[in-house]
Amino acid sequence: MDVHPENGILARGTLPESLVRALRWLDARPDEPVALETLAAIAGVRPRTLEAHFKRHLGTTPLGWVRRMRLARARQQLLAAGSEASVTSIALANGFSQFGRFAAQYRRQFGELPSQTAKASRAPPPGGTDERLDEAGRLCWRALSTAFMVGPDACGAALDDAERAQELAPADALPKAIAAWCWSQRAAHNFGGAPQLDRARAQGLAQEAARLAPHDALVLGLASGALTLTGRLGEADRLIERSLAIDPWSPWGWARRGWLSAYAGDDEGALRELQITLRLMPFEPLRHLMVIGIGCVHFNAGRYERAARWIADGVSAVPQSFWAERVLVAAAAHAGARAEARRAARALLGKDARLTVSAAREAWPFTPGFMDRLGDGLAIAGVPRD
Predict the structure, then answer these.
(1) Closest listed residue to residue 175, CA positions, set 148, 208, 149, 151
(2) Buried (b) or exposed (e) across 309-335, using 16+ Cβ within 10 A?
(3) Which CATH superfamily is domain 2-121 in?
(4) pLDDT in tens, 44-82
(5) Cα 37 from chain centroid?
(6) Does domain 250-386 have CATH number 1.25.40.10?
(7) Do residues 383 and 354 make contact, with C-beta atoms less than 8 angstroms apart?
(8) Does the domain at residues 125-248 carry the CATH identifier 1.25.40.10?
(9) Quick one: which H or E segment has residue 338?
(10) Is residue 11 scored above 50 in pLDDT?
Protein backbone atom coordinates (compact mmCIF):
# COMPACT_ATOMS: atom_id res chain seq x y z
CA MET A 1 0.00 0.00 0.00
CA ASP A 2 1.34 3.44 -0.92
CA VAL A 3 0.16 7.02 -0.77
CA HIS A 4 0.27 9.65 -3.47
CA PRO A 5 2.29 12.58 -2.07
CA GLU A 6 -0.22 15.21 -3.14
CA ASN A 7 -3.63 13.87 -2.24
CA GLY A 8 -3.19 10.77 -0.11
CA ILE A 9 -4.78 8.44 -2.71
CA LEU A 10 -3.38 4.95 -2.62
CA ALA A 11 -0.82 3.96 -5.23
CA ARG A 12 -1.79 0.38 -5.96
CA GLY A 13 1.16 -1.29 -7.67
CA THR A 14 1.35 -4.16 -5.20
CA LEU A 15 -2.39 -4.81 -4.68
CA PRO A 16 -4.63 -7.27 -6.55
CA GLU A 17 -6.30 -5.69 -9.57
CA SER A 18 -9.75 -6.37 -8.13
CA LEU A 19 -8.84 -4.37 -5.03
CA VAL A 20 -7.35 -1.59 -7.14
CA ARG A 21 -10.61 -1.26 -9.09
CA ALA A 22 -12.65 -1.12 -5.88
CA LEU A 23 -10.42 1.53 -4.30
CA ARG A 24 -10.39 3.71 -7.41
CA TRP A 25 -14.17 3.57 -7.54
CA LEU A 26 -14.37 4.55 -3.86
CA ASP A 27 -11.89 7.41 -4.33
CA ALA A 28 -14.19 9.00 -6.89
CA ARG A 29 -17.26 8.70 -4.64
CA PRO A 30 -16.37 10.05 -1.18
CA ASP A 31 -20.00 10.88 -0.37
CA GLU A 32 -22.00 8.07 -1.99
CA PRO A 33 -23.59 5.11 -0.17
CA VAL A 34 -21.65 1.89 -0.64
CA ALA A 35 -23.05 -1.64 -0.78
CA LEU A 36 -20.74 -4.66 -0.64
CA GLU A 37 -22.48 -6.31 -3.61
CA THR A 38 -22.04 -3.19 -5.75
CA LEU A 39 -18.40 -2.84 -4.78
CA ALA A 40 -17.73 -6.51 -5.55
CA ALA A 41 -19.36 -6.13 -8.99
CA ILE A 42 -17.12 -3.12 -9.71
CA ALA A 43 -14.09 -5.16 -8.57
CA GLY A 44 -15.13 -8.12 -10.73
CA VAL A 45 -15.01 -10.68 -7.92
CA ARG A 46 -17.42 -12.27 -5.47
CA PRO A 47 -18.19 -10.37 -2.26
CA ARG A 48 -16.42 -12.98 -0.15
CA THR A 49 -13.28 -12.70 -2.31
CA LEU A 50 -13.29 -8.92 -2.07
CA GLU A 51 -13.67 -9.13 1.71
CA ALA A 52 -10.69 -11.50 1.84
CA HIS A 53 -8.58 -9.07 -0.21
CA PHE A 54 -9.47 -6.15 2.03
CA LYS A 55 -8.68 -8.21 5.13
CA ARG A 56 -5.35 -9.45 3.84
CA HIS A 57 -4.01 -6.24 2.29
CA LEU A 58 -5.72 -3.47 4.27
CA GLY A 59 -6.47 -5.17 7.57
CA THR A 60 -10.22 -4.51 7.62
CA THR A 61 -13.50 -5.18 5.81
CA PRO A 62 -14.57 -3.17 2.74
CA LEU A 63 -17.23 -1.22 4.65
CA GLY A 64 -14.91 -0.83 7.61
CA TRP A 65 -12.31 0.67 5.27
CA VAL A 66 -14.88 3.09 3.81
CA ARG A 67 -16.01 4.24 7.25
CA ARG A 68 -12.49 4.62 8.59
CA MET A 69 -11.23 6.59 5.58
CA ARG A 70 -14.28 8.85 5.46
CA LEU A 71 -14.03 9.63 9.15
CA ALA A 72 -10.30 10.36 8.79
CA ARG A 73 -11.00 12.62 5.81
CA ALA A 74 -13.72 14.43 7.75
CA ARG A 75 -11.32 15.03 10.64
CA GLN A 76 -8.65 16.42 8.32
CA GLN A 77 -11.20 18.78 6.79
CA LEU A 78 -12.45 19.92 10.21
CA LEU A 79 -8.91 20.63 11.34
CA ALA A 80 -8.03 22.47 8.13
CA ALA A 81 -11.19 24.55 7.86
CA GLY A 82 -10.63 26.58 11.04
CA SER A 83 -13.22 29.30 11.49
CA GLU A 84 -14.91 28.22 8.25
CA ALA A 85 -15.61 24.70 9.54
CA SER A 86 -19.19 23.49 9.16
CA VAL A 87 -19.67 20.10 10.75
CA THR A 88 -22.84 19.48 8.78
CA SER A 89 -21.36 20.28 5.37
CA ILE A 90 -18.20 18.25 6.06
CA ALA A 91 -20.26 15.28 7.23
CA LEU A 92 -22.38 15.41 4.06
CA ALA A 93 -19.30 15.77 1.86
CA ASN A 94 -17.98 12.52 3.29
CA GLY A 95 -21.14 10.47 2.92
CA PHE A 96 -22.65 10.88 6.38
CA SER A 97 -26.29 11.95 6.15
CA GLN A 98 -27.34 10.80 9.63
CA PHE A 99 -25.60 13.36 11.81
CA GLY A 100 -26.25 11.63 15.12
CA ARG A 101 -24.65 8.43 13.83
CA PHE A 102 -21.77 10.41 12.32
CA ALA A 103 -21.10 12.14 15.65
CA ALA A 104 -21.22 8.82 17.52
CA GLN A 105 -18.86 7.06 15.09
CA TYR A 106 -16.54 10.07 15.06
CA ARG A 107 -16.41 10.13 18.84
CA ARG A 108 -15.67 6.38 19.00
CA GLN A 109 -12.77 6.75 16.57
CA PHE A 110 -11.27 10.02 17.77
CA GLY A 111 -12.44 10.39 21.36
CA GLU A 112 -14.19 13.72 20.83
CA LEU A 113 -17.18 15.11 18.98
CA PRO A 114 -16.79 16.71 15.53
CA SER A 115 -17.83 20.06 17.01
CA GLN A 116 -14.98 19.81 19.52
CA THR A 117 -12.46 19.20 16.72
CA ALA A 118 -13.83 22.20 14.82
CA LYS A 119 -13.64 24.40 17.92
CA ALA A 120 -10.04 23.34 18.64
CA SER A 121 -9.03 24.09 15.05
CA ARG A 122 -10.03 27.73 15.54
CA ALA A 123 -7.62 28.22 18.45
CA PRO A 124 -4.37 30.07 17.64
CA PRO A 125 -1.44 27.66 17.13
CA PRO A 126 0.73 27.19 20.22
CA GLY A 127 3.97 29.07 20.15
CA GLY A 128 2.90 31.59 17.52
CA THR A 129 3.67 34.62 19.72
CA ASP A 130 5.21 33.02 22.81
CA GLU A 131 8.98 32.81 22.37
CA ARG A 132 9.40 29.99 24.90
CA LEU A 133 6.75 27.83 23.22
CA ASP A 134 8.19 28.60 19.81
CA GLU A 135 11.65 27.49 20.93
CA ALA A 136 10.18 24.35 22.52
CA GLY A 137 8.56 23.50 19.20
CA ARG A 138 11.82 23.99 17.31
CA LEU A 139 13.67 21.71 19.73
CA CYS A 140 10.94 19.05 19.49
CA TRP A 141 11.07 18.83 15.72
CA ARG A 142 14.86 18.62 15.79
CA ALA A 143 14.73 15.95 18.49
CA LEU A 144 12.14 13.88 16.66
CA SER A 145 14.37 13.19 13.67
CA THR A 146 17.40 12.49 15.84
CA ALA A 147 15.47 10.21 18.20
CA PHE A 148 14.58 7.82 15.39
CA MET A 149 18.23 7.29 14.46
CA VAL A 150 18.32 4.98 17.52
CA GLY A 151 21.97 5.12 18.48
CA PRO A 152 23.66 6.19 21.72
CA ASP A 153 24.86 9.59 20.47
CA ALA A 154 21.64 10.38 18.60
CA CYS A 155 19.56 9.28 21.56
CA GLY A 156 21.54 11.52 23.89
CA ALA A 157 21.22 14.53 21.60
CA ALA A 158 17.47 13.99 21.17
CA LEU A 159 17.03 13.60 24.91
CA ASP A 160 18.88 16.86 25.57
CA ASP A 161 16.57 18.70 23.17
CA ALA A 162 13.42 17.04 24.52
CA GLU A 163 14.31 17.81 28.13
CA ARG A 164 15.03 21.45 27.33
CA ALA A 165 11.68 21.60 25.50
CA GLN A 166 9.96 20.20 28.59
CA GLU A 167 11.45 22.99 30.68
CA LEU A 168 10.17 25.59 28.22
CA ALA A 169 6.72 24.01 27.74
CA PRO A 170 5.95 21.86 30.81
CA ALA A 171 2.30 21.32 29.82
CA ASP A 172 3.12 20.14 26.27
CA ALA A 173 2.84 16.41 25.60
CA LEU A 174 5.18 16.14 22.60
CA PRO A 175 8.53 16.71 24.36
CA LYS A 176 7.48 14.24 27.06
CA ALA A 177 6.61 11.63 24.41
CA ILE A 178 9.94 12.14 22.63
CA ALA A 179 11.80 11.86 25.91
CA ALA A 180 9.88 8.68 26.77
CA TRP A 181 10.91 7.14 23.46
CA CYS A 182 14.56 8.08 24.12
CA TRP A 183 14.56 6.70 27.68
CA SER A 184 13.04 3.45 26.40
CA GLN A 185 15.87 3.15 23.86
CA ARG A 186 18.42 3.62 26.61
CA ALA A 187 16.73 0.86 28.60
CA ALA A 188 16.38 -1.63 25.74
CA HIS A 189 19.84 -1.14 24.24
CA ASN A 190 21.64 -0.36 27.52
CA PHE A 191 22.92 2.97 26.22
CA GLY A 192 23.08 4.41 29.71
CA GLY A 193 24.04 1.48 31.94
CA ALA A 194 20.96 1.73 34.19
CA PRO A 195 18.18 0.00 32.23
CA GLN A 196 15.74 -0.46 35.12
CA LEU A 197 15.81 3.24 36.03
CA ASP A 198 15.56 4.26 32.36
CA ARG A 199 12.63 1.88 31.84
CA ALA A 200 10.66 3.33 34.76
CA ARG A 201 11.30 6.87 33.54
CA ALA A 202 10.16 5.97 30.01
CA GLN A 203 6.93 4.41 31.25
CA GLY A 204 6.05 7.39 33.44
CA LEU A 205 6.66 9.94 30.68
CA ALA A 206 4.78 7.88 28.08
CA GLN A 207 1.71 7.56 30.27
CA GLU A 208 1.79 11.26 31.15
CA ALA A 209 2.11 12.28 27.48
CA ALA A 210 -0.82 10.05 26.48
CA ARG A 211 -2.97 11.60 29.23
CA LEU A 212 -2.08 15.13 28.15
CA ALA A 213 -2.74 14.58 24.43
CA PRO A 214 -5.22 11.71 23.96
CA HIS A 215 -6.12 12.93 20.43
CA ASP A 216 -2.60 13.56 19.09
CA ALA A 217 -1.59 10.69 16.78
CA LEU A 218 2.13 11.50 16.91
CA VAL A 219 2.23 11.69 20.71
CA LEU A 220 0.30 8.43 21.00
CA GLY A 221 2.64 6.71 18.54
CA LEU A 222 5.74 7.81 20.43
CA ALA A 223 4.21 6.81 23.75
CA SER A 224 3.29 3.42 22.29
CA GLY A 225 6.88 2.92 21.13
CA ALA A 226 8.22 3.70 24.59
CA LEU A 227 5.76 1.34 26.27
CA THR A 228 6.61 -1.38 23.73
CA LEU A 229 10.32 -1.26 24.48
CA THR A 230 9.61 -1.34 28.21
CA GLY A 231 7.45 -4.45 27.90
CA ARG A 232 3.96 -2.90 28.30
CA LEU A 233 2.70 -4.49 25.08
CA GLY A 234 -1.04 -4.46 25.81
CA GLU A 235 -1.00 -0.78 26.71
CA ALA A 236 1.20 -0.01 23.72
CA ASP A 237 -1.16 -1.85 21.38
CA ARG A 238 -4.16 0.16 22.56
CA LEU A 239 -2.31 3.45 22.04
CA ILE A 240 -1.08 2.62 18.55
CA GLU A 241 -4.51 1.48 17.42
CA ARG A 242 -5.87 4.80 18.64
CA SER A 243 -3.05 6.68 16.91
CA LEU A 244 -3.81 5.01 13.57
CA ALA A 245 -7.54 5.59 13.99
CA ILE A 246 -6.81 9.31 14.32
CA ASP A 247 -4.25 9.41 11.47
CA PRO A 248 -4.41 6.34 9.18
CA TRP A 249 -1.48 7.61 7.07
CA SER A 250 1.04 8.31 9.81
CA PRO A 251 4.36 6.59 9.02
CA TRP A 252 5.33 6.97 12.68
CA GLY A 253 2.18 5.08 13.65
CA TRP A 254 2.67 2.31 11.10
CA ALA A 255 6.31 1.95 12.17
CA ARG A 256 5.28 1.22 15.74
CA ARG A 257 2.40 -1.00 14.60
CA GLY A 258 4.83 -3.09 12.54
CA TRP A 259 7.35 -3.48 15.34
CA LEU A 260 4.61 -4.41 17.79
CA SER A 261 3.49 -7.18 15.44
CA ALA A 262 7.08 -8.34 15.04
CA TYR A 263 7.56 -8.52 18.81
CA ALA A 264 4.34 -10.54 19.08
CA GLY A 265 5.55 -13.05 16.48
CA ASP A 266 2.93 -12.05 13.88
CA ASP A 267 5.28 -12.37 10.90
CA GLU A 268 2.68 -11.80 8.17
CA GLY A 269 1.18 -8.75 9.87
CA ALA A 270 4.60 -7.29 10.69
CA LEU A 271 5.85 -7.61 7.11
CA ARG A 272 2.71 -5.94 5.78
CA GLU A 273 2.85 -3.10 8.29
CA LEU A 274 6.61 -2.47 7.98
CA GLN A 275 6.28 -2.38 4.20
CA ILE A 276 3.40 0.09 4.50
CA THR A 277 5.74 2.31 6.53
CA LEU A 278 8.48 2.06 3.90
CA ARG A 279 6.04 3.12 1.21
CA LEU A 280 4.77 6.03 3.30
CA MET A 281 8.31 7.17 4.22
CA PRO A 282 11.01 5.37 2.18
CA PHE A 283 13.83 7.46 3.64
CA GLU A 284 15.52 8.16 6.95
CA PRO A 285 15.05 8.42 9.86
CA LEU A 286 12.52 5.57 9.55
CA ARG A 287 13.87 3.52 6.65
CA HIS A 288 16.68 1.69 8.46
CA LEU A 289 14.39 0.80 11.38
CA MET A 290 11.85 -0.76 9.02
CA VAL A 291 14.59 -2.65 7.16
CA ILE A 292 15.96 -3.98 10.46
CA GLY A 293 12.43 -4.90 11.52
CA ILE A 294 11.91 -6.93 8.35
CA GLY A 295 15.20 -8.68 9.11
CA CYS A 296 13.89 -9.56 12.58
CA VAL A 297 10.72 -11.00 11.03
CA HIS A 298 12.84 -13.24 8.78
CA PHE A 299 14.90 -14.30 11.82
CA ASN A 300 11.73 -15.23 13.68
CA ALA A 301 10.62 -17.32 10.69
CA GLY A 302 13.97 -19.14 10.53
CA ARG A 303 15.07 -17.44 7.29
CA TYR A 304 18.50 -16.59 8.67
CA GLU A 305 20.37 -15.65 5.50
CA ARG A 306 17.60 -13.26 4.47
CA ALA A 307 17.52 -11.86 8.02
CA ALA A 308 21.24 -11.13 7.87
CA ARG A 309 20.97 -9.35 4.51
CA TRP A 310 18.13 -7.07 5.63
CA ILE A 311 19.73 -6.20 8.96
CA ALA A 312 23.14 -5.56 7.37
CA ASP A 313 21.45 -3.13 4.98
CA GLY A 314 19.80 -1.27 7.86
CA VAL A 315 22.99 -1.06 9.92
CA SER A 316 25.08 0.08 6.96
CA ALA A 317 22.63 2.96 6.39
CA VAL A 318 22.89 4.10 10.04
CA PRO A 319 26.01 2.61 11.67
CA GLN A 320 24.91 3.90 15.11
CA SER A 321 22.25 1.19 15.09
CA PHE A 322 24.80 -1.45 16.06
CA TRP A 323 22.28 -2.82 18.57
CA ALA A 324 20.68 -4.63 15.61
CA GLU A 325 23.92 -6.48 14.93
CA ARG A 326 22.97 -8.78 17.80
CA VAL A 327 20.35 -10.34 15.53
CA LEU A 328 22.73 -10.30 12.55
CA VAL A 329 25.37 -12.21 14.55
CA ALA A 330 22.83 -14.78 15.73
CA ALA A 331 21.42 -15.15 12.20
CA ALA A 332 24.89 -15.85 10.80
CA ALA A 333 25.52 -18.44 13.52
CA HIS A 334 22.24 -20.26 12.86
CA ALA A 335 22.82 -20.10 9.09
CA GLY A 336 26.02 -22.11 9.59
CA ALA A 337 28.45 -19.23 8.92
CA ARG A 338 30.11 -19.59 12.31
CA ALA A 339 33.46 -18.03 11.42
CA GLU A 340 31.64 -15.00 10.04
CA ALA A 341 29.43 -14.90 13.14
CA ARG A 342 32.48 -14.91 15.42
CA ARG A 343 34.13 -12.09 13.46
CA ALA A 344 30.92 -10.06 13.61
CA ALA A 345 30.59 -10.77 17.35
CA ARG A 346 34.12 -9.50 18.04
CA ALA A 347 33.38 -6.32 16.09
CA LEU A 348 30.11 -5.86 17.95
CA LEU A 349 31.74 -6.29 21.35
CA GLY A 350 34.17 -3.56 20.35
CA LYS A 351 31.19 -1.19 20.03
CA ASP A 352 29.08 -2.59 22.88
CA ALA A 353 31.51 -3.70 25.58
CA ARG A 354 28.69 -4.41 28.08
CA LEU A 355 26.95 -6.89 25.79
CA THR A 356 26.28 -10.36 27.20
CA VAL A 357 23.86 -13.09 26.20
CA SER A 358 21.88 -12.41 29.38
CA ALA A 359 21.67 -8.68 28.64
CA ALA A 360 20.58 -9.33 25.05
CA ARG A 361 17.84 -11.68 26.19
CA GLU A 362 16.42 -8.93 28.42
CA ALA A 363 16.52 -6.19 25.79
CA TRP A 364 13.42 -6.68 23.65
CA PRO A 365 9.88 -8.03 24.12
CA PHE A 366 10.12 -10.60 21.33
CA THR A 367 8.55 -14.02 21.86
CA PRO A 368 10.46 -16.52 24.06
CA GLY A 369 11.31 -18.63 20.99
CA PHE A 370 12.88 -15.64 19.25
CA MET A 371 14.90 -14.71 22.32
CA ASP A 372 16.04 -18.29 22.89
CA ARG A 373 17.41 -18.49 19.35
CA LEU A 374 18.95 -15.04 19.67
CA GLY A 375 20.76 -16.07 22.86
CA ASP A 376 21.88 -19.40 21.41
CA GLY A 377 23.23 -17.72 18.29
CA LEU A 378 25.14 -15.10 20.27
CA ALA A 379 26.64 -17.80 22.48
CA ILE A 380 27.73 -19.82 19.45
CA ALA A 381 29.45 -16.68 18.12
CA GLY A 382 31.37 -16.21 21.36
CA VAL A 383 29.43 -13.48 23.13
CA PRO A 384 29.90 -13.92 26.94
CA ARG A 385 26.88 -15.45 28.65
CA ASP A 386 27.02 -13.15 31.71
Answers:
(1) 208
(2) bbbbebbeebeebbbbbbbbbbbbbbb
(3) Homeodomain-like (1.10.10.60)
(4) 989 898 888 888 777 788 888 888 888 888 888 887 776
(5) 34
(6) yes
(7) no
(8) yes
(9) helix 338-351
(10) no
